[in-house]
Specification:
2 domains, OB fold (Dihydrolipoamide Acetyltransferase, E2P), six-stranded mixed β-sheet, Rossmann fold, binds magnesium ion, binds adenosine-5'-triphosphate, alpha+beta, 8 helices, 33% strand, 403 residues, globular
């Protein structure tokens, strides 16, 4: 008789390279990490993004075992490493300061860790050659760090980690000491490297452009907690809350406080937001991305209109971020590089109305949900839908209290 095939039970850690479960870490009475769960998939490039002091380095150090958590658990490649020494965790780490040995050549710096790990001598040279070729370091192998530029030193620091063939590489702001051009170049090299190697990378930065361009997924941190964990595209279009909305974007989203009266938003500008279920009189915040604002004759048909005075123009060639004011409220727009604007001028901003959106009220109060798309995806109402501009309900006493 044919027996029913029984699938082996899948471990909840299958396909997960690093799993962090509720680590607690405090400096004295100040808790820096807490209430945090994060699973990093095998081969994923995960970026931890957040403002200075939000706990990014602390979390990375926790994973590396450099700052052990007092509670919680950490798993790497299926093993519980919560109490393991850093050297037992199968990780490599690249720091912001290159931390190279000045008396050793590039080759010496790269082979040092391998010799310590008792890698057989005849394996060391091919591994160095492979890693050096990945970041174009071959011509520099005999030089000492003092004879290298900042970018070259950082490449050595990255290569020194790669050469160890680790499952998980951790990077703590490795590019932040470099100038903008070098940063952009190394960013591309890192991405290419990850595509070729396919190992798990966890990368800390406070630069959202770096995060958006490098990451498979971004974890946005604030106060030791993750605010949103999603792809760059999702974070841009379906931001989880006002903090994320105001953090991502260049310039970030304008968040205009105001009141909703029926379907009309009254604030620094007036907008018909028919389609939302926020009826009655509510405090609300209208979020508008600078790049969604149009101006000039071509945009005259767009129904939402507001006059703003130009304060500062920052021409960047392809496009031009402009600081304007709607009455007293600062409002930033990103215009086409061809648009000619100057300080003092009054601009007429135009906006497309948002795309149709169904809104459902789940519970009587604060738990409104925006629903959109055929799959009825839902996000809490303090969150924005994937709109050209987005409306957010907020109750008294202050919308800030809900962040
Ligand atoms: N040794 C320490 N003693 C006390 N507080 C500390 C210590 N190290 C870090 N902190 C505090 O812990 C919090 C998180 O620090 P952490 O270095 O993880 O931040 P970060 O997100 O990496 O910031 P940055 O982007 O500036 O590097 C900060 O508020 C910081 O002041
Ligand atoms: Mg840090």
């Amino acid at each position: 008789m044919a027996q029913a095939l029984r699938a082996e039970p899948r471990s909840e850690l299958d396909g997960i390279s690093v799993s962090i479960r509720d680590p607690t870490l405090a400096y004295g009475v100040v808790e820096v990490l807490g209430d945090l769960k994060l699973d990093v998939n095998e081969g994923e490039f995960l970026v931890l993004l957040g403002d200075s002091g939000c706990g990014k380095s602390t979390l990375l150090n926790c994973i590396a075992g450099l700052q052990p958590a007092t509670k919680g658990q950490i798993f790497i490649s299926g093993q519980n490493v919560t109490w393991a020494e850093p050297s037992e965790r199968g990780i490599g780490m690249v720091f912001q300061s290159y931390a190279l040995y000045p008396q050793m050549t590039v080759e010496g710096n790269m082979s040092f860790g391998l010799k310590n790990a008792r890698v057989p001598r005849d394996e060391i040279a091919p591994r160095i050659a492979r890693a050096a070729s990945a970041l174009q370091l071959e011509p520099l192998l005999k030089r000492k760090p003092a004879a290298l530029s900042g970018g070259q030193r950082q490449r050595v620091a990255i290569d020194r980690t790669l050469v160890r063939d680790v499952d998980v590489s951790l990077f703590d702001e490795p590019l932040s000491n470099l100038n903008a051009k070098l940063r952009a170049e190394l960013r591309v090299e890192l991405k290419r490297l990850h595509q070729n190697l396919g190992n798990t990378m966890i990368y800390v930065t406070h630069d959202h452009i770096e995060a958006m361009t490098l990451a498979d997924r971004i974890a946005i941190m604030r106060g030791g907690k993750i605010q949103q964990l999603a792809t760059a595209d999702d974070i841009y279009r379906r931001r989880a809350n006002l903090y994320v909305a105001g953090f991502i974007g260049s310039p970030p989203m304008n968040l205009l406080p105001g009141r909703l009266d029926g379907n009309i938003f009254h604030g620094p500008l007036e907008a018909d937001v028919t389609g939302y279920d926020f009826t009655g009189r509510l405090r609300a915040v209208l979020g508008i991305r600078p790049e969604h604002v149009r101006t000039g004759d071509a945009a005259a048909a767009l129904p939402i209109r507001a006059e703003a005075r130009v304060e500062v123009v920052e021409p960047m060639g392809a496009d031009t971020p402009v600081w304007t004011r709607l009455g007293d409220t600062p409002f930033r727009v990103r215009l086409d590089g061809e648009d000619r604007v100057r300080a003092g001028q009054v601009l007429v901003h135009r906006l497309r109305p948002r795309q149709p959106v169904a809104v459902r009220r789940r519970h009587r109060d604060a738990d409104l949900r925006l629903c959109h798309g055929e799959d009825d995806e839902t996000v809490p109402a303090t969150l924005f839908g994937p709109l050209r501009h987005a409306l957010c309900r907020c109750d008294p006493p202050s919308w800030r209290a809900r962040l």
